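Q: My labmate handed me this sequence with no annotations at all. I'd like to see what the chain might look like in three dimensions before we decide whether it's worth expressing. Could you predict it?
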Amino acid sequence: MRGAAIWPATLSYGSVGLRPIKKRDRQAWNEVRARNREWLTPWEASNPEPGGRLPSFSEMVRALNDQARAGSALPFVITETDDDGVARLAGQLTVSNIIWGSAMMATAGYWVDRDRAGRGLVPTALALATDHCFQNLGLHRMEINIRPENAPSLRVVEKLGFRDEGLRPKYLHINGVWADHRSFALTADEVPGGLISRLRIRG
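A: Here is what I predict for the chain of 203 residues:
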């Protein structure tokens, strides 16, 4: 089964790590999310069904782990290791919609603790995940869709050299409305040396 071959995975570079999200992350995840509610709400996915709700933490973890076992997602938490050597939860990065066969592609989405924004965590985490998908899983394309107003997220893809493929009108339901997104992508042949190497060179 393909899922068993691709998951679990743990990745790291410097103080930044990616590891599988687990039910025991509930307290740390809830604390970071509560502290960042105002920061994250404008970019949050929402349920377009009348009266619909988002899954609870346990429901989310269960669904993501089911997808990981099926080979259709890689659900990571982003960690940052402090000076005492403790890796603390700093955000989340999910590689989803993995399509095999003739497409060999995936989509990445992420969020990070505002207190840690601007320190290179997300570019490093995204570079780690993309390199893993290209170099270890053999995927061909990584795509990211970002609200045009989300300047911090746009800086992430710009720093890593993702190609702007244009606007997708009303692409995803975000914070209660169907929202436009800009689509960015990279293919494996565009970064033969990997994104971590590109990040290291660009600083």
